[in-house]
Amino acid sequence: MKILQNIDFLTEDNVNRSNIMLLSRMIKDDTISHAYMFYGNNMELLSRLALSFAASINCVDNGCGDCIICRNTKRGVYPNVLVVEPEGNILRIEKIAGLQKFISLSSYNPGKKICIIKESELMNQEAANKLLKTLEDPPDDDSIFILLTEDISIMLPTVVSRCLVYSWNFKFNEDTPVKADFEVMEKYLNEGIKNIIMLQENQSRASTASVDLTLRLVEILKKMEAGVKTDLEKEFSEIRKVILKK
């Protein structure tokens, strides 16, 4: 269990310790569930955590950290592991269809087939319903799903109910903004700028809501650049809620 026992970005608290103990015991006793949901406030670290868990599941030494399975899985290039990500701000049904096709195929290497779904809260209704059918009736005992989310409150309740849910707490430097938050801002800022250009060109595809959101993000970025810290966390939290509900 070397990988799970030595994750340096988890805070040392009872919640994380209990989670690691339970996951390690499942691996040791070969009682792995077919569906998990990890949630916390940093998607990048949730992804690294999920890959470490996947490596520990398939490693013959339960996560030695040194074998090719562990190394390649942590890098996200092991053939038995599929990482699914949204395009833009929606995780569409086509992504879930690709996941189902991956699961239906025979394993390329020894071990279980593991699907990691990043930003699973961004699934639209069609995608969530399609995934739900797979979670309710998994194709075999060798298929595992790990859903990652920063906001479990907007997940489809029936999807959540099919998973073993684990909340995680991550370490951050006190004066360092969360990298994942900046990635979210960058993604939507880029989208908003494109929409502004499209509006200027009188293209009907442009989203006025995206433009409004972009202008609000720009104001926050200006405050960050100026070193203004008053209520900044609260402001960004409100912006992020708007983002994730779009």
From TrEMBL:
InterPro entries membership: DNA_Rep/Repair_Clamp_Loader (IPR050238), P-loop_NTPase (IPR027417)
Gene Ontology BP, a term: DNA-templated DNA replication
Pfam families listed in its UniProt record: DNA_pol3_delta2
UniProt cross-references to PANTHER family, sorted A to Z: DNA POLYMERASE III SUBUNIT DELTA (PTHR11669:SF8), REPLICATION FACTOR C / DNA POLYMERASE III GAMMA-TAU SUBUNIT (PTHR11669)
Name under which the protein is recorded: DNA-directed DNA polymerase
